[in-house]
Design a protein that fits this description.
- By secondary structure, this protein is of the alpha/beta class.
- About 20% of the residues lie in helices and about 35% in strands.
- A hairpin with a 2-residue loop joins strand 18 and strand 19.
Length: about 375
């Protein structure tokens, strides 16, 4: 429930975690109530891309950077059609944005899209709490939604958990669409939308790829109806353990030997398709400053992450799978979490992070070129 209210900055707001921890501040954005999984993002910039990333569906994002909203909101950096976060938590919102592309304030945009937020709380203490206790359910309440603490806690504990949530179909396109190649068309890619960001097909289009974006419900027949040179599986929200349909489709692609590339949720889908398990991280990886090593080259990249689940695959050996040998190609240097997989006997690979750099560094842009190389090799 949300109500659009001007002057929300003066309205008291309460953030209630499912373990009973409570933070009190001021309303930011819309006034009302919202529920989701409390997670934190360590990026110091790129908040607009974060807000519009469909992978954040049903999550309440806590920004670790203290000042948020400095550059306002523009009409160019949206990664999808709307803001997907369930709620937004900041310490010190910008009073006046300053950027030549800014069209409105972040507060106004959150209000217009009905996103309930809270400001003026100690986000450092909240982040430390989530690191120690793990990501958990949370509610933000402001205006008439504020009740006694015990009543608010009960509401939070009734909210659905992220583990076991099947969400990709809720954020994906319902109808296929095409992103044309920029310049000469060289390849055709079928992209299964599990929560795709707008910059991803753009990065492929820059390389002469015509991208056919398909709904999450697409079948193997739908994928091959576009006569693809390669198949892509996107990022997206939810628990990969529930994604049986995308796993089945990916296995069909692997059986045919078509070049395959997966990002984020797509990496988890590849892991499951190969027979590996997945598990929920304690508090996940979210931000644009995560160090990852490409084990195939030894290079360390600063990368953009947004994932609360990971693939359970061995780091120290090559694994035998139904589709040949597979290995972990990338690993997070903070905690040794699997950040990439590749098949050694078929043209397929994936990464857990976001190489489209929206927002984020450009260290991993080469992965799109690696996908092109696979399609070149297959064509040859």
């Amino acid at each position: 429930m949300t109500t659009s209210t001007r002057g929300a900055a003066k309205t008291p707001a309460v953030l209630v975690l499912e373990d009973g921890r409570i933070f009190r501040g001021r309303a930011y954005g819309a006034v009302g109530e919202t529920f989701g999984e409390a997670v934190f993002s360590t990026g110091m910039t790129g908040y607009q891309e974060t807000l519009t990333d469909p992978s954040y569906h049903r999550q309440v994002v806590v920004m670790t950077a203290p000042h948020v909203g400095n550059t306002g909101v523009n009409d160019e950096d949206m990664e999808s059609r709307k803001i997907w976060v369930s709620g937004y938590v900041v310490r010190d919102p910008a009073r006046v944005p300053s950027n030549w592309r800014s069209r409105r304030t972040l507060d106004e945009e959150l209000d217009a899209q009905g996103v309930v937020g809270i400001s003026g709380i100690d986000t450092r203490a909240l982040t430390r709490h989530l690191r120690e206790r793990g990501a958990m359910r949370v509610g933000i309440f402001s205006g008439e939604a504020v009740r006694e603490d015990s009543a608010l806690l009960a509401r939070v504990q009734e909210a659905p958990q992220m583990k076991g949530a099947n969400l990709s179909a809720e954020v994906a396109t319902t109808e296929p669409y095409v992103v044309p190649a920029i310049g000469e068309k060289k390849y055709t890619v079928a992209a299964v939308d599990l929560g795709i960001k707008g910059m991803t097909p753009h990065r492929m289009a820059e390389r002469g790829i015509e991208v056919h974006v398909l709904p999450a419900t697409a079948t193997v027949e739908d994928v091959y109806a576009v006569n693809p040179d390669g198949v892509f599986f996107s990022n997206g929200p939810g628990d990969p353990a529930t994604a049986d349909h995308p796993v089945s489709v990916m296995r069909g692609v692997l059986e045919r030997g078509t070049p395959l590339f997966g990002i984020c949720f797509g990496n988890q889908i590849l892991g499951r398709a190969l027979g590996f398990g997945t598990f929920k991280l304690k508090y996940g990886h979210r931000g644009i400053n995560q160090p990852v090593q490409d084990r195939t080259t030894g290079k360390v990249e600063v990368t953009a992450h947004n994932h609360g689940f990971a693939v359970d695959a061995p780091l120290d050996k090559v694994s035998e799978t139904p589709f040949g040998r597979a290995e972990v190609s990338h690993v997070c240097l903070n905690d040794n979490v699997v950040e990439g997989l590749q098949l050694l006997d078929r043209p397929a690979f994936s990464v857990q992070y976001h190489p489209e750099a929206a927002a984020g560094p450009h260290d991993a842009a080469y992965l799109f070129d690696r996908f092109v190389s696979l399609m070149e090799g297959q064509r040859a």
